[in-house]
Design brief:
The chain has seven helices and 37 strands. The chain has 677 residues and is of the alpha+beta class. Helix 1 links the parallel strand 13 and strand 14.
Length: 677
């Protein structure tokens, strides 16, 4: 158990104190939290047997991270006066969850002339009454760089164990890109490697963020990091992510510390943090300390503390060294940053660090890392099309939000983990993943059924309910529809398949309001006949030309035998939207008093002529009016209104009435001439 906090002991006149500060996680740009439970010892020679004295030659750091030795007999002339010691860590002298770094790589930043001295420090000669602290210049702490490769910050480093990646397809990952000048002409290849990683995650429930560093973070040549996680589950999302660093340029210096500290300060949580670098660190801290051309203990120590802060959040750190600048013993520093397991070509899911010759190979290794997480899985990406989108176009599709549920099942024996249900979240990927366990078989057929939202409808693609792709080969995978919205697909144990399902908001048919037209609302053929005949009554003393007034109903018989010759000039009636007033009906033009019909829509023949002094002759036979023409559909804007019916009068009716009037006039003239003759 780590010791409780306690004060560093005070030496007596005959003793000396050596105190070492041990560190764990970075807490600020230039501050580190103490690490309790670290065990150190005093040696006379490195790796040469046990400590100098078991009673006082070992210490364990307390809760403040202080590990202190009290050296006896250091007074003048005593046994340990003037004696020096080597402070080193005992094997496995770390608390649970940590590992030691007994050696670190130092030397030129180019990677040439590398050295890997042991991580131990020599104390000054002992003098009674004196305390020797690691954070005081002269013991561990040194700001003299150059070839003083063991220059330290005075805080003993140890590394956190690397968290494991979650065992599922899809990952939230931060990509940390080295933009130091040493990348040189390989910058396009570095970006290609990053692109390959993003493309490999497309089709899975994955999101990515991107950071940069040179002697600072963001790199001095870059305006900003992009810590926000962006979904790369679709090609559109991956393209948007890659666009963020497409125009990045190179700076100078290599500061692992600040690159990782920027990640540690992000409010986002990353399941994996991938550092893509071509060289060892030559700077540290937020004010770019170090000489910028060589790697010292202090440059690496600070990178370790920031990596610890990242791991403390549960993020797995993967260090990928590219090129000669990080080959050979540079693995020691990559190991200290991430974890003790090197990539051996077969363990992409378990490797903590990689060393590769070029960025093209690095891209392939990152792709392998993505694929191993999705081995034996089916990812389902839900895309929502705009309302009204056609079935033959997928333009404008976006990732679904939270709440879309899929059920997976299989009838294949020997497969575990089924049935299973997964629901999309608000992570922006619109995706879920199913990862069955293949126990006794290496292939199965799986049915995926969607719980359809009532306000959306499935959009098929070439008649299929889903479009599936083999993520390893990029080739289409056969799909069979099951039910209205489900589908089935085959999967091998080592295969990763991604299927996209499209929906759009359901279209509602609007209720249309009928547009009024001039078409009559009735279909019955109107029928009518004249129902009255005018009668005539003289109104004055008979004379050769009596005067008379027509009335709607005869009240008396005329006296005398007036003679008169009426004239009748029929005119073509005009129509109007409504029936005309009777006063506007056509009438004879001869006598001063002309008969006025009582209804304009009915026409009758005038009476036969009669002589003064005789009884009025009965009205002559009226000519039969021509039957009205059958109604025809009104022309645009035409037709008259039939009062009280709500229907329109066809234009042919007034024409028929005019024809009838003409016939009646002709008949009257004929009768008159006969009587005269």
């Amino acid at each position: 158990m780590p010791e409780a906090p306690k004060s560093v002991p005070t030496p007596s006149a005959d003793s000396s104190v050596i105190t070492v500060r041990t560190g764990g996680d970075r807490t600020g740009a230039q501050t580190v939290r103490g690490l309790p439970g670290v065990r150190l010892a005093l040696f006379t020679q490195p790796d040469n047997g046990p400590p100098v004295d078991i009673a006082w030659g070992e210490c364990t750091s307390d809760a403040d991270g202080d590990c202190s030795f009290t050296i006896p007999q250091t007074g003048s002339g005593q046994a340990n006066a003037g004696r020096t010691f080597l402070v080193a860590q005992v094997p496995n002298g770390v608390p649970d969850g940590w590992y030691t770094n007994p050696e670190l790589r130092v030397g030129p930043g180019s990677g040439s002339d590398s050295e890997h001295p042991g991580y131990f420090f020599e104390t000054p000669g002992m003098t009674g009454g004196t305390t020797y602290a690691s954070t005081v210049p002269g013991f561990m702490l040194s700001s003299t760089y150059g070839t003083n490769y063991k220059a330290s910050g005075g805080v003993w480093q140890n590394s956190r164990n690397n968290p494991r990646l979650p065992a599922h397809c899809g990952v939230d990952v931060a990509l940390v890109l080295d933009l130091s000048a040493s990348v040189g002409s390989a910058l396009p290849q570095l970006k290609d490697a990053a692109n390959t990683f993003a493309d490999a995650l497309t089709g899975t429930p994955s999101r990515m963020a991107v950071f940069s560093f040179d002697q600072a973070s963001p790199a001095t040549s870059v305006s900003a990091n992009h810590p926000e996680l962006r979904p790369v589950s679709t090609k559109t999302g991956a393209t948007a992510f890659k666009r963020q660093y497409a125009d990045w340029t190179l700076g100078k210096g290599t500061n692992w510390d600040q690159g990782l500290w920027a990640v540690a300060q992000s409010p986002e949580h990353y399941e994996a943090v991938v550092v893509l670098t071509d060289g060892n660190p030559t700077r540290f801290a937020d004010d770019a300390q170090g000489d910028g051309s060589r790697t010292h203990f202090r440059d690496v120590e600070n990178g370790i503390f920031s990596a610890n802060a990242v791991k403390a959040t549960g993020s797995r750190v993967v260090a990928l060294g590219v090129g000669k600048g990080v080959e050979g013993v540079s693995a020691l520093n990559l190991r200290a940053l991430s974890g003790p397991t090197a990539y051996d070509g077969t363990n992409p899911g378990r490797a903590d660090y990689y060393q590769t010759a070029d960025f093209a190979a690095a891209g392939q290794q990152l792709r392998d890392l993505a694929m191993v997480q999705c081995k034996g899985s089916i990812s389902v990406v839900k895309q929502i099309l705009p309302a009204g989108a056609s079935d033959d176009g997928l333009t404008g599709a976006v990732n679904a939000g939270a709440g879309w549920t899929f059920d997976a099942s299989t009838a294949t024996a020997g497969i575990g983990g089924m049935p299973a249900t997964a629901t999309t979240t608000d992570d922006g990927t619109g995706s879920v993943a199913f990862q069955p366990s293949f126990t006794t078989v290496d292939h199965g057929v799986f049915t995926i059924a969607e719980t359809q939202h009532t306000d959306h409808e499935l959009v098929t693609v070439d008649g299929r309910n889903a479009v599936c792709t083999d993520l390893g080969t990029g080739r289409p995978v056969d799909v069979a529809n099951t039910g209205t919205t489900g589908f089935s697909v085959g999967l091998d144990a080592g295969q990763a398949v991604s299927c996209t399902v499209y929906n759009r908001p359901e279209q509602t048919t609007p209720t249309s309001t009928p547009t009024p037209t001039s078409t009559p609302t009735h279909t019955a053929k109107p029928t009518w006949k004249p129902t009255w005949k005018p009668t005539w009554r003289p109104t004055g003393t008979p004379s050769p030309k009596p005067t008379w007034t027509p009335t709607g109903k005869p009240t008396s018989k005329p006296t005398g035998k007036p003679t008169w010759t009426p004239t009748w000039t029929p005119t073509q009636p005009t129509h109007s939207p409504r029936p005309t007033d009777p006063a506007d009906s056509p009438r004879p033009t001869g006598p001063a008093h002309t008969p006025r019909p009582t209804a304009s829509t009915h026409t009758a023949a005038p009476p036969a002529p009669w002589s003064p002094g005789s009884s009025p002759a009965p009205p002559g036979p009226a000519a039969r009016p021509a039957p009205p023409a059958p109604p025809a559909p009104p022309a645009a804007g035409g037709g008259s209104h039939l009062a009280g019916t709500g229907a329109s009068m066809p234009l042919a009716w007034p024409a028929a009435a005019g024809a009838a009037a003409c016939a009646l006039g002709t008949a009257l003239l004929v009768v008159t001439r006969r009587r005269r003759s």
